[in-house]
Every structure is written in C-alpha cells, then in structure tokens.
Design goal:
The protein is α/β, with parallel strands linked by helices. Helices cover 49% and strands 12% of the residues. The chain has 13 helices and eight strands. The protein has helices spanning 23-30, 44-51, 71-83, 95-108, 161-179, 186-206, 213-232, 237-247, 253-268, 275-281, 286-296, 313-322, 333-345; strands at 12-16, 35-38, 58-62, 88-93, 112-116, 127-132, 135-140, 148-152. A six-stranded parallel beta sheet has the order 1-8-5-4-2-3, with helices on both faces. The protein has a two-stranded antiparallel ribbon with strand order 6-7. It is globular. The structure holds nicotinamide-adenine-dinucleotide. Nicotinamide-adenine-dinucleotide (NAD) is lined by residues 40, 42-43, 67-69, 93-97, 99, 117-118, 120-122, 125, 127-129, 155-156, 158-159, 163, 167, 170, 230, 253-254.
C-alpha cells in the first residue's frame, strides 16, 4: 500500500427522497434565522417551492446565479444579502447556484445550506472558481465548503436529458482525475470507481426511463461520490482545460467537460490506474469507453458545436500554459493543441 494522507471534510450530508423537509431543522441546528435563497432565473419557481419548507426563516431570494460565478453577480448577491439582513444562505440548484452560495458565504462568513439539483458535485468541495476579466481563478479553502448538503433525488427528476448526461460526465471527470491524482488515497480511489459505476449503470436505465426513481437515486449517489473525490484531491490537465474553455471562451461547463474528458483520458493513458473506468463502463480503453458512453447517450462530442473554433485553439493553449496544473503525464503546448484539435472535431480517441 502506498503512503497517503486522508483528511475527511467537515460537512453534514442528508441523502434520500423527500429530504427537503429537513431544511427547516437543519437551519435550526445551524442557528440560522434569516435565510437568503439563491437560484438561477430558470429555477426561481422550483427554488421558491422548495424554500417553502423553511418559509418562516426565508427573508428573500436572489435568482441571478449564472455559470462560472462572475464576480459582478456575486457583488449583486452580496447587496441582496445585506438588504435582507440574512444570516444564512440556502442555495437550490446546480453548480452555478451552489458556486454563488459559496462565494457569498465565504465573503460574509455565514452558513450555507446547499440543495443540489444537478450532478456537478460542487456542494461537496471546498473549491471556488470565480470569473473576472475573462479569466477563471480557482481557490481551495475549508471555509468554502457548505455546512449542510441536502440531496433530494426528487429534485433531479426535472433535470433535462441533455443536462443529465453532460452533468453526469462532468461528475465522472472528477472521479477520473481522482484516480490518478498525485494526492489520491484509497478512500477516494474506492469512491471514484463506485461513482463511475453508479453513473454507468443508471444512465443506461435513464436513457429510456428518465423518471426511474432508483436509477435517479443511483445517479445522485454517483454525484455525491464523484463530488467527494473532487473535494478531497487535486485535479489535473482535464480540469485545467475546462476552466480555460469556460472562463476565457464562456463555453458551457458540463458540455465542455463531456467533450474534453475522453481526449485527456486517452492522452494520459495510465492504463493501470484507469482500469476502474473499463471495469465500470466496459471496453478496454478508458478514453474510448467515455467517448462511447457519451455518444450512446446523445451527448455533444465536439467543441465546434459548443461555439469553439479552430482560430481559438492557439489562444486557449497559451492561457492553459500560463499556470499549468500538475498532470501525471508531462505535457507541452503542442499536446494541448493536439487534444483541442481532436476535441474540436469530435474524433474518437485512440486510447
Ligand atoms: P448550472 O448550475 O449552470 O445549471 C445549468 C442549467 O440547468 C441552469 O439553468 C439550471 O437552473 C438548470 N438546472 C439545474 N438543475 C436543474 C433541475 N433539476 N431541473 C431543471 N433545471 C435545472 O450547471 P452545472 O453543470 O450544474 O454547474 C456548472 C457550474 O458549477 C460551473 O460554474 C462550474 O464551474 C461549477 N462547478 C463548480 C465545482 C466546484 O467544486 N467548485 C464543481 C463542479 C461545477
């Protein structure tokens, strides 16, 4: 057994169906009396209904969350927080809403209850990525982690199919990079494989029965497992490229992860460490297994469809090389260009 360090995260997790009924008692336990609800404009109605579970404590809603946590939106949310004199945050939504919850809870020093509705996994991480002046900067601090996370599988029934698939691929990306993370540990390796397998089996059911409660529950479990991996260990080239494509080119987060993941996985090779992917998804090449799963589920397979063009590749490679992440396989600018080229055209990876 390799030497390792394991440091559990300090957040409370409730998982199940109908768990939103616990929001009130969780707020009570945290000593929160005045909750500001956060949502995207698209989920304002759904968040309003969920928040009724704690209606006596809800003092207002900011429904302006948007992708990649732009700091100007965070400033507006901070103004709303102060206007409502809130002493706690209830973020209901996907990674964008939870990202905003983190951004304002860490600025104001207030407890954050996260109610995730997608598979992005942000709720389980002490990581905050914020975008300003066209660049996404990420930091990690224990104070960023939500105090309580309430997974209610019923809220994922409304997740559109395209988001279901891309959000699941986004979650699997956390697990894939955890499998070769330089600071990985046996707990994370086990969770990573469980998470990938949970998605592999549940997505095949959800493809024809998107409301299947057991499959939705398995997928949400996968989100918890993969998000926990992301919260525990550091990520590598795949996440770096996605941050560049999201922060600098404003590409959609989950879809970008979906397109890039098979290519970086194939580039990294690491057959031994990535065997968990083929044990979970089938096939014999990790990058191909991820590509074939995405193709089978009707996910986007090329960056061109997401608004990225050949002329963007050189600039993306420059930004990625400015502050590169550690990666198990050393890479040069020319490797990034090759990966982006393959992803631009949606070629099936060889590895
Ligand atoms: P998102 O939160 O932007 O959601 C996309 C759209 O789907 C939004 O309109 C949202 O309202 C809608 N939606 C979400 N759940 C829904 C549901 N159940 N029913 C109907 N509509 C629903 O997308 P995302 O992929 O969940 O999150 C992406 C963001 O999360 C990015 O900004 C990314 O950087 C961040 N993120 C951060 C971390 C972290 O650890 N810091 C991890 C993963 C993702």
């Amino acid at each position: 057994m390799r030497a390792f360090t394991y440091e559990p995260q300090k957040s409370r997790v409730l998982f199940g169906s109908g768990t939103i009924t616990e929001i009130e008692s969780e707020a009570e336990q945290l000593g929160v009396k005045r909750l500001l609800v956060l949502a995207t404009p698209e989920q304002a109605d759904q968040a309003g209904q969920v928040a009724q579970q704690a209606e006596k404590r809800v003092v207002g809603m900011f429904a302006g969350a948007t992708m990649h946590t732009p700091t100007d939106v965070t400033e507006k949310a901070m103004t709303s927080l102060k206007q409502h004199d809130a002493d706690g945050i209830l973020a209901i939504g996907g990674g964008s809403t939870i990202g905003l919850g983190k951004a304002i809870s860490v600025r104001a020093g207030l407890p954050h209850i996260a109610v995730p509705t997608s598979y992005a996994g942000s709720e389980m991480t002490p990581i905050l990525g914020e975008t300003a002046d066209g660049k996404k900067l990420t930091r990690r601090d224990p104070s960023i982690l939500p105090a309580t996370v309430i997974y209610d599988v019923d809220l994922t029934l409304s997740l559109p199919w395209s988001m279901t698939v891309t959000s699941a691929m986004n979650a699997m990306a956390h697990a894939v990079e955890a499998l070769y993370a330089k600071d990985r540990n046996p707990v994370v390796e086990t969770l990573a494989e469980r998470g990938i397998r949970a998605f592999g089996t549940s997505l095949c059911v959800l493809k024809s029965a998107p409301d299947d409660p057991d499959a939705r529950s398995d997928a949400f479990f996968g989100a918890w497992a993969c998000g926990t991996c992301l919260g525990q260990v550091s990520m590598a080239l795949h996440h770096k490229l996605c941050h560049v494509l999201g922060g600098t080119f404003d590409l959609p987060h989950a879809a970008t992860h979906t397109v890039i993941l098979p290519h970086v996985t194939a580039f990294n090779g690491m057959d031994g460490q990535l065997a968990a992917i083929n044990r979970s998804l089938g096939g014999s090449k990790p990058g191909q297994a991820l590509f074939d799963l995405a193709a089978d589920l009707g996910a986007p397979l090329n960056l061109a469809d997401l608004g990225f063009s050949q002329g963007d590749i050189a600039h993306a490679a420059d930004v990625a090389m400015e502050s590169p992440y550690w990666n198990p396989r050393p890479f040069r600018r020319s490797d990034i260009i090759a990966i982006l080229n393959a992803a631009l055209h949606g070629e099936r990876p060889v590895g």
